[in-house]
């Protein structure tokens, strides 16, 4: 008969802990039937959306989350019961039995979490925009190229059915030479209620928030619950609507046309919709000059949502028009649709086309690539190029002038 001694118990406990902390497979060797174990840094509203997405992917398990605000722990557990929680993300990265990490922290901390996740040997899903600045984008690109990790950027439109349809039409050659692309995004809120504004909850206090970690090296002027909850409104933490929304459409356009970095950017606008103390503009007009004679424009307002969002690829032989969320004047309904219209002068026998490809899960694409070690739909190179576009545009707005690529790359932003 075997006696159960305290020493035996401690050995078994240590073995169990080691099983949790030790890698179940060599890095990059996830089998088709192996459960993929992921963790998340930053479990706010966007992070919780991503938690729901990853939890719905078959063969995955969310193991842990890290956040500087403990309120997020209970909220996340409502989505994924039983997960481990950490106030310090570095403890999460120390877990060996993690295959991939989702970074959904505020924009100004993306680069730190991006680089540290790769250094810990984890595959990475990094929310857009990839970084807060161009120097950070350069840093992350270097780290990614030195790594063998699978990296997906949260530019979800690249996995969409409309994008697949547009790519096919472009590859079929029915669009012809493109010299101009027009894009837009419009929203509205009740008067007096600015876009993104959230009131701090009663437990959002200096005692409950790791303010120093949140600041990520920015000057500390004392805990500010309003700025913590509404970081998207301030340059110190955010790139505003350009890094929240324009980035998706720029990725769609640049990916579709295989555009390199732009040669110059000009952005005008201002805080016109709601004078609520925000620093980032709510009314925007951007013009981007690209090599090979291509101009891309983007317009946005937070004062009217009639036309939703969309982009028109204007080719010599035809037009690709993608529209989502625009309100029909008669029915008041909105719909997502992508269509091709031939230019009769150059394509007289062409037919109008309507895309109908399904939209699979962007998160599932990441998981599939973690298994296959293939390149995801939104690779780090696209994340880098779109980040540069966003920051060039914002720099132009803040400098009140046209900014070249060389000027933007040489600029070192201050807090």
Which features characterize this protein?
single chain; 415 residues; alpha/beta; Rossmann fold; Dihydrodipicolinate Reductase, domain 2; 2 domains; six-stranded parallel beta sheet; 15 strands; 22% strand; disordered N terminus
Characterization of the model:
The chain has 415 residues and is an alpha/beta fold. It folds into two domains: 137 residues, NAD(P)-binding Rossmann-like Domain (Rossmann fold), CATH 3.40.50; 230 residues, Dihydrodipicolinate Reductase, domain 2, CATH 3.30.360. It contains 13 helices and 15 strands. The strands form two sheets. It has a nine-stranded mixed sheet with strand order 14-13-12-11-7-10-9-8-15. It has a six-stranded parallel sheet with strand order 3-2-1-4-5-6, with helices on both faces. Helix 5 links the parallel strand 4 and strand 5. Helix 5 packs parallel to helix 6 and helix 10 packs across helix 12.
